[in-house]
UniProtKB/TrEMBL annotation:
<feature type="domain" description="Large ribosomal subunit protein uL6 alpha-beta">
    <location>
        <begin position="320"/>
        <end position="400"/>
    </location>
</feature>
<dbReference type="GO" id="GO:0003735">
    <property type="term" value="F:structural constituent of ribosome"/>
</dbReference>
<feature type="domain" description="Large ribosomal subunit protein uL6 alpha-beta">
    <location>
        <begin position="235"/>
        <end position="308"/>
    </location>
</feature>
<dbReference type="InterPro" id="IPR036789">
    <property type="entry name" value="Ribosomal_uL6-like_a/b-dom_sf"/>
</dbReference>
<dbReference type="GO" id="GO:0016491">
    <property type="term" value="F:oxidoreductase activity"/>
</dbReference>
<keyword id="KW-0687">Ribonucleoprotein</keyword>
<dbReference type="GO" id="GO:0019843">
    <property type="term" value="F:rRNA binding"/>
</dbReference>
<dbReference type="InterPro" id="IPR002109">
    <property type="entry name" value="Glutaredoxin"/>
</dbReference>
<dbReference type="GO" id="GO:0022625">
    <property type="term" value="C:cytosolic large ribosomal subunit"/>
</dbReference>
<feature type="domain" description="Glutaredoxin">
    <location>
        <begin position="53"/>
        <end position="118"/>
    </location>
</feature>
<protein>
    <recommendedName>
        <fullName>60S ribosomal protein L9-B</fullName>
    </recommendedName>
</protein>
<keyword id="KW-0699">rRNA-binding</keyword>
<dbReference type="Pfam" id="PF00462">
    <property type="entry name" value="Glutaredoxin"/>
</dbReference>
<dbReference type="InterPro" id="IPR014025">
    <property type="entry name" value="Glutaredoxin_subgr"/>
</dbReference>
<dbReference type="GO" id="GO:0002181">
    <property type="term" value="P:cytoplasmic translation"/>
</dbReference>
<comment type="similarity">
    <text>Belongs to the universal ribosomal protein uL6 family.</text>
</comment>
<feature type="compositionally biased region" description="Basic and acidic residues">
    <location>
        <begin position="1"/>
        <end position="10"/>
    </location>
</feature>
Length: 421
C-alpha cells in the first residue's frame, strides 16, 4: 500500500515512530557493545599495571593446571602471579577475545609478563625443561621484572617468599592467588581483589532487548553441554606421535606426516604409553562430534606412515581413445598429468598432483591409473582433480558416464607393518 507524503497522515506517523524505535534500539545496542569493550580493555590495563606475571587460564583445562603447577609450585615468584580464570570471570569471553587480538593466541593458558605473552602451557614446559624460564621472564620484563620479580627454585628462601607474599598497592591490600590442597583451581581468595569487582552490566544481545506484547523479554535457549567427553586411539609400536600446540606429527616406516589441528578446541593427552586421548570439556553436540573426526584424522595419519593409500582410476571411451601422459617435474618433484583426445577434442587437459603423490599407469590392467602416497587427503584430492577436469558438460550423464572415474579408492599399499586396530 502506498502512503501519501503527508506529514499529518496518521499511517505515516505510525511508520515513522516504528523506525525511530528501531534506530534507538540499535543505538542502545551499539553503546552497550562499546561499554563492554571499554570495560574489557580497562580490566586488562589495570591487571597488567599491578602484576608483573599474569596467568589467563580456565579452571577445567589440564594445560592451564600444568602451567600453574610449574609457575606456582616449582618456582617462587615474588610478588605471586595473578591468576584469571576466564570461565569464572565476569568478562571471560571478552577478555579472551581481546587477548587473541593483541597476543595472537586464541587458546588458554596465556601467560603475560609485563603485558607481553610468552605462550601457553607447552611453551612454559619447554622453557622449564631448558632452564630458560627465569631468563625469559627477565628478558621480557626488563628492569621492572628484574627489580620487583625474583625467581628461585623450590626450597631456597621459601620462608622469605611466604613472608613477603602479600603486597600493598595504594591504600588497598592485595593477596596473591595461592593453591590449596583441597581444590587446585580455587579462586576464592583472588575473588576478594578489587580488580574483580567491576560495574555490573548486561551483555548486549538483540534477543534480550526485544519486547513482545506480553511485556517480557524472550528467554535464551539452554544448550545441553557434556562435562567431559573423550576418545582414545592406540599407537602401533613402530609409530611415533608428537603433539605440541595441537600440531600433530606422526613418524613411521614410510615417512613423516604433519597435521595442524589448532583450529579445533580439543585437548590431547597420553594416559598410557601407547595410547593418546582426545578430550573436550563442556562441549555441545557439534563440539563433541569433532572428537571422532580428530580421532579419524590421526588414525589416517598412522595408516599413511605404515601402509599408505592407493587410488585406482579407469578411463573409459567408446570411439575416441583417451591418451594420458604422466611426467615428473624435475624442479618441483610433482607429477603432471596430460589428457589428450578427450571425446575427440584438441584441447589438452593438465593437472598437477598434490605433494607426496605418485602417479603411474597400471602394468597389468589396460587404461588404468594408480595414485599412491602417504597422505589420504593428498591422494584423494589428486584423484578428484583428474575426475573433475574430465567432467562432461551438457550431456546426459546416464549415457556418457564418467570417462575418467575412480575405480577403487582407499586401498592400502603393501603391508609394511601390522594393521592398526
Amino acid at each position: 500500500m502506498t502512503v501519501p507524503k503527508d506529514r499529518n497522515n496518521p499511517e505515516r506517523q505510525m511508520q515513522g515512530s516504528g523506525t525511530d524505535e528501531r534506530v534507538e534500539a540499535k543505538t542502545e545496542l551499539n553503546i552497550a557493545i562499546l561499554t563492554t569493550s571499554r570495560h574489557t580493555r580497562r580490566s586488562v590495563a589495570e591487571i597488567c599495571a599491578r602484576y608483573a606475571v599474569i596467568i589467563f587460564s580456565k579452571s577445567y583445562c589440564p594445560h592451564s593446571a600444568r602451567a600453574k603447577s610449574i609457575l606456582l609450585d616449582k618456582y617462587s615468584i615474588v610478588p605471586a602471579p595473578y591468576v584469571v580464570e576466564l570461565d569464572q570471570h565476569l568478562l571471560g569471553q571478552p577478555l579472551q577475545a581481546l587477548l587473541a587480538a593483541n597476543t595472537g593466541r586464541r587458546t588458554v593458558p596465556n601467560i603475560l609478563v609485563s603485558g607481553r605473552s610468552i605462550g601457553g602451557g607447552d611453551d612454559v614446559v619447554a622453557l622449564d625443561e631448558k632452564d630458560e624460564l627465569a631468563s625469559t621472564f627477565k628478558k621480557l620484563g626488563g628492569q621492572w621484572v628484574q627489580e620487583g620479580l625474583t625467581l628461585f627454585d623450590q626450597g631456597n628462601l621459601l620462608g622469605e617468599a611466604l613472608r613477603v607474599a602479600s603486597t600493598r598497592v595504594g591504600n588497598a591490600r592485595f593477596e596473591p592467588w595461592r593453591r590449596t590442597t583441597r581444590d587446585f583451581h580455587s579462586t576464592k581468595e583472588s575473588d576478594r581483589l578489587p580488580l574483580r569487582n567491576f560495574d555490573p552490566f548486561e551483555r548486549p544481545t538483540a534477543r534480550r532487548h526485544r519486547q513482545f506484547s506480553l511485556g517480557h523479554s524472550t528467554a535464551h535457549a539452554v544448550k545441553m553441554r557434556y562435562i567431559h567427553s573423550e576418545e582414545r586411539l592406540p599407537i602401533p609400536e613402530n609409530v611415533k606421535i608428537h603433539i605440541r600446540s595441537r600440531v600433530v606429527t606422526v613418524e613411521g616406516p614410510r615417512g613423516k606426516l604433519v597435521k595442524d589441528l589448532s583450529h579445533i578446541a580439543v585437548t590431547f593427552g597420553r594416559p598410557e604409553k601407547d595410547v593418546i586421548s582426545i578430550e573436550m570439556h563442556h562441549g555441545a553436540r557439534k563440539g563433541i562430534a569433532t572428537l571422532r573426526t580428530v580421532r579419524t584424522i590421526i588414525n589416517n595419519l598412522i595408516i599413511g606412515v605404515t601402509k599408505g593409500f592407493k587410488y585406482k582410476m579407469r578411463y573409459v571411451y567408446a570411439h575416441f581413445p583417451i591418451n594420458v601422459n604422466i611426467e615428473k617435474n624435475a624442479e618441483t618433484g610433482l607429477y603432471d598429468v596430460e589428457i589428450r583426445n578427450f571425446l575427440g577434442e584438441k584441447y589438452v587437459r593438465r593437472i598437477t598432483a598434490q605433494p607426496g603423490v605418485e602417479i603411474i599407469t597400471s602394468p597389468n590392467v589396460k587404461d588404468e591409473l594408480q595414485l599412491s602416497g602417504n597422505s589420504l587427503e593428498n591422494v584423494s584430492q589428486s584423484a578428484a582433480d583428474i575426475q573433475q577436469i574430465c567432467r562432461v558438460r551438457n550431456k546426459d550423464i546416464r549415457k556418457v558416464g564418467f570417462p575418467l572415474k575412480i575405480d577403487d579408492d582407499g586401498e592400502t599399499v603393501a603391508n609394511h607393518s601390522p594393521p592398526v586396530p
